[in-house]
Write a structure and sequence with these properties.
Blueprint lengths: L3 E6 L7 H14 L4 E6 L1 H4 L6 H18 L7 E4 L5 H10 L4 H5 L2 H7 L8 H15 L5 E3 L5 H18 L8 E3 L34 H10 L21 H6 L1 H13 L4 H8 L4 H27 L2 H30 L5
The chain binds tryptophanyl-5'AMP (TYM).
């Protein structure tokens, strides 16, 4: 094994294409080579009010999405964060290590709290510390996530290093982020400068993993583009990435091409080469066909799994037992380092 992976998704909504291409699909690919722990982070979800019945339903739905995408539960652990109390206990200790100044720099808090910051929950503010506890409580070596989580991972590394220095130990392992590929940042279908997000009020901004073929076709047809034909290879830099100046002019076009590249496992240059000078309408038809061929079977398998909620609950419960067995001794070591007496 090359190391231990920890990663998570909030059960606040059905998974979208950004979650799948930016995170879950990469987990599936890494699970043979790493010991894997995948968490449905329900405690993170409640940093913004969640209807309790919806939270329960979404926790099962995200679990089903992990399994339907190809996470093999005989090898990898899937569980819900609240099923292992280590996360909350370790988060408290780490809250006392992290500095207010560090949290004040977190851009995601600023975005999520918006203008009415005084009214945001305290949990939303300390959210990144709970995320650090998720990772450090398992001594995870690698964390595969989308680009938007990069700053949170840097914070987890800073917290680990400060804890080790403050207490003169090597208890906590700073994790390595695993971010990359054409889909590390999938953008909204309505505005290529905003990331695809579950909190966008327009459902046309995203492809959900449960969308049927007609809905996927409709959303891509309505996706914002421009009247110019598709670009040629001159927009690429020497590394094969779209040049920033080109991307700034047509962000929606390059986003759709990056989605195509990721879904078909190609570099974006190969997609640009194949569609140079063609009309968007033809490209969108091919993109729809490709997306339906990848997402259709996953959506169908999710529906099948969700017909048997007791089985999903059993997977989570078995996963939680394994997660506790790994993290409890680590928490005990951390508590001894801090000076807490055994219970
Ligand atoms: P969450 O639930 O917002 O997103 C889950 C995963 O999907 C990725 N992602 C994207 N990737 C590419 N393009 C997008 N438009 C896009 N939108 C979302 C995210 O980067 C993430 O990998 N804080 C985390 C959950 C979390 C976590 C953790 C992750 C809690 N504890 C520990 C890793 C390790 C979050 O809110 O992800």
């Amino acid at each position: 094994m090359k190391g231990r992976i920890f990663s998570g998704v909030q059960p606040t909504h059905t998974l979208h294409l950004g979650n799948y291409l930016g995170a879950v699909r990469n987990w599936v690919r890494m699970q043979k080579e790493y010991e894997c722990i995948f968490c449905v982070v329900d405690m993170h979800a409640i940093t913004v009010f969640q209807d309790p019945a919806e939270l329960t339903k979404n926790t099962r739905e995200v679990t089903a999405a992990f399994m339907a995408s190809g996470i093999d539960v005989s090898h990898s652990i899937i569980f819900a964060q609240s099923q292992n109390r280590v996360h909350a206990q370790l988060a408290w200790i780490l809250n006392c290590v992290a500095r207010v100044g560090w949290l004040n720099r977190m851009t995601q808090f600023k975005e999520k709290a918006g203008k009415d910051r005084e009214n945001a929950s305290v949990g939303l503010y300390t959210y990144p510390v709970l995320m650090a506890a998720d990772i450090l409580g398992y001594r995870a070596t690698h964390v595969p996530v989308g680009e938007d989580q990069k700053q949170h991972l840097e914070l987890a590394r800073d917290i680990a290093q400060k804890f080790n220095t403050d207490f003169g130990v090597e208890c906590l392992v700073p994790p390595a982020p695993v971010i990359g590929g054409p889909a590390a940042r999938v953008m909204s279908l309505r505005d290529g400068t905003k990331k695809m997000s579950k909190s966008d009020p327009s459902d046309y901004s995203r492809i959900n993993m449960t969308d049927d073929a007609d809905t996927i076709a409709l959303k891509f047809r309505k996706a914002k583009t421009d009247p110019a034909p598709l670009p040629g290879l001159e927009v690429l830099d020497e590394k094969g990435f779209v040049k920033a100046e080109a991307d700034a002019l047509r962000p929606e076009a390059y986003n759709l091409m990056a989605i195509y590249a990721a879904l078909s496992d190609q570099e974006i240059g190969a997609v640009i080469g194949a569609y140079e000078g063609k009309e968007f309408s033809a490209f969108k038809r091919d993109l729809t066909e490709l997306a339906v061929s990848v997402l259709g079977p996953i959506g169908a398998e999710m529906k099948r799994l969700l017909d048997h909620p007791a089985e999903i609950d059993a997977v989570l419960s078995r996963g939680a037992t394994k997660a506790r067995a790994i993290s409890e001794p680590i928490l005990t070591e951390i508590e001894r380092a801090v000076g807490f007496l055994p219970a």
